[in-house]
UniProtKB/TrEMBL annotation:
Record's keyword terms, sorted: DNA-binding, Transcription, Transcription regulation
Organism: Hymenobacter nivis
Name by which UniProt lists this protein: LacI family DNA-binding transcriptional regulator
Coiled coil ranges: none
Pfam families: LacI (PF00356), Peripla_BP_1 (PF00532)
InterPro entries listed in its UniProt record: HTH_LacI (IPR000843), Lambda_DNA-bd_dom_sf (IPR010982), Peripla_BP/Lac1_sug-bd_dom (IPR001761), Peripla_BP_I (IPR028082)
Ranges for domain HTH lacI-type: 49-103
GO molecular function: DNA-binding transcription factor activity; transcription cis-regulatory region binding
Keyword hit for Methyltransferase: no
Source species taxonomy: Bacteria, Pseudomonadati, Bacteroidota, Cytophagia, Cytophagales
Length: 384
């Protein structure tokens, strides 16, 4: 039996049940109830070897260890080998945070994209890494999943981790850009790509959305299409406005009327694309072609038309914007515009490196990457 904590007498203490899983006691000598002390859980300490540990193991100064591990020529081969062996045995790893604080650079680029599962963004990140890795930079990738709140949180986390620069493609929901304005104001390099913000004086990499939309709409007109509908995105989205402008420009060039009933602004979700399709099919004169400014919605339309017993392209031509591997595998193959996302990522990373090199002399500029019209069976009405 334990000793009573009040009267310090071991005699007269008896068990008196349990309280919250712990044994309860009663001291008859002083009429005092108490519970057994909660056993202390030893704290698991995580220890990481330091330069000083390596120095003690070899019997040299910490500065000697630092110079040896950084390849300085003033360290003898024997000492260097001893230091490297000690570092290996102690599992020593450089403290990148300490190094970055010393040189005021982390050699890390923060990248924020809407969705890593989308082939366009995954390929753009691959292009960023291609250039960044060659320049000695690491890349930290965050995705917003098309959420404004997640995007803000991602940017704040990257800045808190002292990234040297921020490469960002905004979410569909983003209309307030204060979370990007503040890092830019503090001199942190910011590069926008694809979905950009004109409220920040930053370097930008954009697609030639207007020309690409013009080319693909003109292709439909050349195939004999006269009532061409457009499945656009939210009006607040710059790329949606640019692609719609290219579509309208092609109609005007060829003397075709524009119609509000043939323009649908959706949120890019499958159900909204199918709802727009059904509304068009219910018209007295349905469209003979649909231009989906997002290629994933073009896939939605192809599937929905098949389910409704309509033939593509004979009954309805379908084109998209943005190319991926599935576009050539689906039946019929999807006519679309290749956006060259790998080039976009590469150029975004190059603009960051230029800004890091030129510092205050860097003048933000906008680089335009032209798209490429890829014609497949989904739009070839004249051969359908």
């Amino acid at each position: 039996m334990p000793v009573c904590p009040k009267c310090s007498q071991p005699d007269g203490v008896m068990k008196a049940g349990f309280v919250r899983g712990r044994q309860r006691y009663f001291c008859k000598g002083c009429a005092y109830h108490f519970t057994e002390a909660k056993p202390a859980v030893p704290e698991r300490k995580r220890y990481q070897a330091t330069l000083a540990d390596v120095a003690r193991a070899v019997g040299v100064a910490s500065s000697t260890v630092s110079r040896a591990l950084n390849g300085h020529a003033d360290i003898s081969p024997a000492t260097r080998q001893a230091i490297q062996e000690a570092a290996r045995q102690l599992d020593y790893h450089p403290n990148f945070l300490a190094q970055s604080l010393k040189r005021r650079e982390t050699m890390t680029i923060g990248v924020v994209i809407p969705d890593i599962e989308r082939p366009f963004f995954a390929t753009a990140v691959s292009g960023i890494q291609d250039v960044a890795t060659a320049a000695g930079y690491r890349v930290m990738i965050c995705q917003s999943k098309e959420s404004y709140e997640a995007e803000v949180s991602n940017v704040q986390a990257l800045i808190a981790n002292r990234v040297d620069g921020l490469l960002i493609c905004h979410s569909r929901e983003t209309e307030n850009f204060d979370h990007v304005k503040e890092p830019a104001r503090r001199g942190i390099p910011v590069v926008h790509f694809d979905r950009v913000c004109n409220e920040v004086n930053s370097a930008k990499v954009i697609l030639d959305d207007r020309q690409g939309a013009f080319a693909i709409t003109e292709h439909l007109i050349e195939q004999g299409c006269r009532r061409i509908a457009i499945l656009a995105g939210p009006p607040s989205l710059l790329i949606s406005r640019q692609r719609q402008a290219g579509y309208l420009g092609a109609l005007r060039k060829h003397g075709l009327p524009t119609s509000e009933e043939l323009c649908a602004h959706i949120n890019f979700r499958t159900e909204s694309a199918v709802a727009a399709l059904d509304a068009w099919l219910a018209l007295p004169e349905p469209p003979d072609a649909i231009f989906a400014i997002n290629y994933t919605n073009a896939f939605d339309l192809l599937i929905a038309l098949k389910q409704r017993g309509l033939r593509v392209p004979a009954d309805m031509a379908i084109v998209g914007f943005g190319d991926e591997f599935m576009a050539m595998l689906i039946e019929p193959g999807l006519t679309t515009v290749d956006l060259h996302p790998f080039r976009i990522g590469q150029q975004a990373a190059r603009l960051f490196l230029e800004q890091m090199t030129q510092k205050e002399l860097f003048e933000p500029r906008t680089c335009i990457i032209p798209g490429e019209l890829i014609i497949r069976q989904s739009s070839l009405k004249s051969r359908g």
